[in-house]
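Re: the request from the purification team.
They wanted to know what the chain is likely to look like in 3D before they choose a buffer screen. I agreed to run a prediction and write the result into the notebook, where they can find it.
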Amino acid sequence: MRLDHGFAETISRFPPAVVVHDVSVANPLGSVRAPSLEVRLKTLGSIAATKPDLVLKSPTARLNVPGIRPLALSGIDSELRIGDAEAHLDSLSIGGDLAVSGTLVWSFDNRRLSFADLSIRAPESLEPGLNLLRFSTGLRAEGNGRWRLRLP
């Protein structure tokens, strides 16, 4: 996975907050590009514990997946907690062409998701790819463009 970004600007010193411009995350399956991402420290105690507790927000983004038209994302909002062994993405909420809500946990040791509980509303153009993912993940169709990812 690759993370790229443009410049960052401070928007608040207390609590600390920055806006990072031109953020993109990409892997062979696709990429997400956001014109801006607000990163705000949620609790000052997380600084002392050296375990960041952050709020992430972006008004818009674009998802590019090979073989389909780009999808517009909106109202991206989540809380990110980074621990010694895991990163927790809590209260994830994404609107737009692809709507996602729920929680993810990434294991640093295993380099994969160790927990997921996501509700997904996907356009018909993503259905073939999501159907393929069903065989290697906990993803399940719930009908009418709705999907659920549960791990373990």
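For the purification team: The CA atoms of residues 32 and 63 lie 4 Å apart.
Please add any questions underneath this entry.
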